[in-house]
Amino acid sequence: MNNKYLLEISNLGKHYSNENNLKIEIIKNLNFKLMQNTKVSIVGPSGSGKTTFLNIIGLLDSEYDGDFFFKNKDISLCSKDETNQIRGLSIGFIHQFFHLIPELTVIENVMLPLLINKNEKKSYEISKKLLLEFGLDERINYKPLKLSGGEQQRVAIARSLVNNPDLILADEMTGNLDEDTANNIFNFFINYIEQNKKTLVYVTHNKTYSILADEIYYFKNKKIHLKNE
Ligand SMILES: Nc1ncnc2c1ncn2[C@@H]1O[C@H](COP(=O)(O)OP(=O)(O)OP(=O)(O)O)[C@@H](O)[C@H]1O
Ligand SMILES: [Mg+2]
After folding, report:
1. Which residue of 107, 161, 169, 214 is surrounded by the most CB atoms within 10 Å?
2. CATH code (residue 206)
3. β-pairing, 167-171 with 91-94?
């Protein structure tokens, strides 16, 4: 096992069962290695399995076949608690529909991942600093629904990064924003990722965004393929 890889996945398989208990295969024999400090985009038709795959590599779904090593750790040997711990500390998720908690303020939303292993005061300070960097310092005490879509997504991005995770996963992160806001947010985000040397896997339907990755994969025949393969 070579430790320059953050993820090593081999022979991945995933199926769902339909209401008649028939197996519906979504992913089959998929192999994927992800190097540290790289940006990878995944494209492919609707329903091809992109979100299913991101949920597996983000440790949100444990029902799959195959081998999965995260930072050289065999995930199949980890307990549920260990897996949750790895996810909480090492992975940041950004979703199309932001997934902010409406009852909490902006800063409380961003603080959440930090509270796993830091006290409240420290978590508040770190979150405030990041929100300042994100141009949201005047919004920290707002509830998310009082913000524009673009501002909500910036909060969600801040929340995904606040823990300094090894891996950031973004699923159609600008899919719910108008074109200008989407461009602003995506450019800001990708700059941040590059400047801070983060490892990113992002799903997008937008070619202008997908080509900014170091490697572009497309989903076809239940697998991902490098774009020039
Ligand atoms: N919980 C589930 N139970 C059964 N089938 C599911 C479930 N979740 C997803 N699927 C099916 O798996 C396939 C892949 O879904 P997935 O959400 O991964 O696609 P996607 O590539 O992300 O599509 P989109 O671009 O529309 O977001 C689809 O056919 C979907 O209907
Ligand atoms: Mg999807």
Report:
1. 169
2. 3.40.50.300
3. parallel
Q: How many A from CA of 204 to the centre of ligand 1?
A: 15
Please state the atom number of ligand 1 nearest to the C-alpha of residue 49: 18
Which atom of ligand 1 approaches the CA of 44 most closely? 21
- Tell me the CB-side half-sphere exposure of residue 220, using CA atoms within 13 A: 7
| CA of 49 relative to ligand 1 center, distance in Å | 6
Q: How large is the C-alpha radius of gyration of the chain?
A: 18
Q: Nearest residue CA, atom 18 of ligand 1?
A: 49
Number of structural domains found in the chain? 1
69 in Cβ contact with 7 (< 8 Å)? yes
Express as a percent the part of the chain with pLDDT over 70.
98
Q: 204 lies in which domain range?
A: 37-65+78-226
Phi, psi of 115 (to 5 degrees): -70, -10
Q: Which amino acid is at 187?
A: N
The mean of the pLDDT values for the chain is: 94
pLDDT of residue 1: 45
Report the helix count and the strand count for the chain, using DSSP H and E: 7, 10
Residue 73 included in any domain: no
Q: Which value, to the nearest 10 degrees, does the dihedral of the CA atoms of residues 209, 47, 75, 39 take? A: -10
